[in-house]
Specification:
Elements: H1 13-26, H2 34-37, H3 48-53, E1 59-64, H4 68-77, E2 83-89, H5 93-102, E3 107-109, H6 112-116, E4 123-126, H7 130-142, E5 146-149, H8 157-169, E6 174-176, H9 184-194, E7 201-209, H10 224-227, H11 238-255, E8 261-267, E9 280-286, E10 292-298, E11 306-312, E12 315-318, E13 323-326, H12 334-343, H13 346-349, E14 368-369, H14 391-404, H15 411-431, E15 435-436
Parallel strand pairs: 1-2, 1-4, 2-3, 4-5, 5-6, 7-10
Antiparallel strand pairs: 7-11, 8-9, 8-15, 9-10, 11-12, 12-13, 13-14
The structure holds nicotinamide-adenine-dinucleotide.
Amino acid sequence: MTKRNIMHNKNSNAEVDLSLRQFIKNLGYTAGGLALLTTVPWLQSCTPEKLAEIKNQKARVAILGTGSRGTYHLHNLLKIPHAQIVALCDNYQPNLNAAAALCPTAKTYTNYHKMLESKEIDAVIISTPLNWHAPMVLDSLAAGKHVFCEKSMALTMDECKEIYDAYLKTDKVLYFGMQRLYDKKYIKALQMIHSGVIGDVVGMRCHWFRNHDWRRPVPSPELERHINWRLYWESSAGLMTELATHQLEVSNWAMKSVPESVMGMGDIVYWKDGREVYDSISLVYRYKNGVKTTYETLISNKFNGMGEQILGHKGTMELAKGEYFFEEAKPAPGIMQLINQVEEKVFSTIPVAGPSWRPEVSGEKKPLYVMGEKSSVNSGLSMIGAEDDGSEEMLSAFCQASITGEKAPNIVEECYCSTILCLMGNEAIKQQRKIDFPEKYIIPYIKF
Ligand SMILES: NC(=O)c1ccc[n+]([C@@H]2O[C@H](COP(=O)([O-])OP(=O)(O)OC[C@H]3O[C@@H](n4cnc5c(N)ncnc54)[C@H](O)[C@@H]3O)[C@@H](O)[C@H]2O)c1
């Protein structure tokens, strides 16, 4: 599916229907009928049939936080025929003005409490710094609004639990911006993993490397903490909640469970510019069966880029690239193996033991493609605004759910678990010890 393919015609429901049908078709599920779809619970509420039922209705949406991500959502919302942006709120006037210029019909607010009083708003999309997520989600739900909040869930474990408890009680729809759950490449790859294509999952390696200081220009010093909120513990949990949260979520998705514990280290290695959060983190999460996710993130070297490798005993899935590899290439016929070994002088070097002395350097491997063709290596890099990473589909599903009131299962739980794991990672670093998943934050969804 191309970016333009999703529901950009504001007037035609037939096209909306067609686009979502195409979306589902592109996921590769239609051949197997709806049976396969039932394994993706959160897609059940946004099927083309259900979208057709809402006809010309629109969710009246407010964007709370019109910075970088809020503006990205604004652009996507303008393409969604069942969404109407009716309000914008930001307490930093330049960002509010910039958003208002893109959507002049929306009412503007600098105080979100004031905005929540409006009866003209059905749903709120929250894209503010992490420390604001909990109060804004809870206040919006209390005001009777459907809520989409950006990841991660919240700054502290207590706040996450408070949100989860509110979610259990509310009749409103609640989404968190874990867009990989709607990324067709991830969905299909996870289906393949679960059907045993790469064998038993025996380990996972996730990493996110960049070479950028993560700073934004500040027009005057008193705005430093407002604009560079990511760099300070009072408003951010650093690289864990900004980057790792997406990748820990897919690790859990692959394992269908949640790690029991984590160990690790974090430091400020390079960007010693007054920031508080680490610029270098290495962690090991351990699942109950001994499978481990090693997690590395560094923002002063981008050689390795971003990736999630799911390692199976028969093969490896590179989720972000949409590629997979089998451990063993089809064996060459015996005579060819013998010729190769003679040519490589294997026998003259070690006449009895065979080639086991060779160093196990990973060689060039020929990938197979999850979507049947080479997919963009950028997919999944939503932080830099990459296209076709599930963000649009998720937002569309949220707007649809805000009209129908039908909740999508698993999304809140997935975000809850990955956020707690991120916060556990930071605790392991700060306390320099292994941290177990705290009993008081275990929810029924969790399987260790
Ligand atoms: N899902 C993803 O891939 C993804 C990608 C990028 C960012 N995000 C998330 O989106 C959120 C925002 O990130 P960003 O990069 O857009 O940050 P940003 O700093 O660019 O934007 C945040 C906006 O919130 C406003 N704001 C702060 N406090 C406010 C308050 N009390 N009332 C009203 N407005 C307030 C700021 O003025 C700013 O305009 C973060 O939670 C981030 O983790 C998610």
